[in-house]
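User: Hey, my collaborator sent me this sequence without any context and asked if I could get a structure. I don't really work with proteins. Can you help?
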Amino acid sequence: MKTYGDIDSKFRFVILASMRAKQLLRGAKPSVKSKSKNLIRVAQEEVKKGLIDYEIVQDKQESFHEPDEEMLIGEEVGKGSGTVEGKTGAGGKKPENDKEQKDELKKKPKKKKKN
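Assistant: No problem. I've predicted the 3D structure and written it out in structure-token form, which is a compact way to encode the shape of the chain:
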């Protein structure tokens, strides 16, 4: 089994080493002397030796505001306005049942294909 210094997972090791390698490639000075001239290898050595400080940040959980009373969207808002929320057909009248509603949907014109 490979050891990654005091890092708890290989994924964290890769992330830290890649971040450090980017710093080295941008001109930061290495904190360890290495036989390798490859800055990625130097970054890996620094992380293995524990020379790179890091902090694990916890995700903030968003809290959702619960409304005081429930409201049905569509029934009150769309009444008589001819909108989708009110389930009105193309003629402006409200279908009486599901069959009428499906028939209204079939009547809508289809989009033409562009050549």
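In plain terms: The radius of gyration is 31 Å. You can pass these tokens on to your collaborator as they are.
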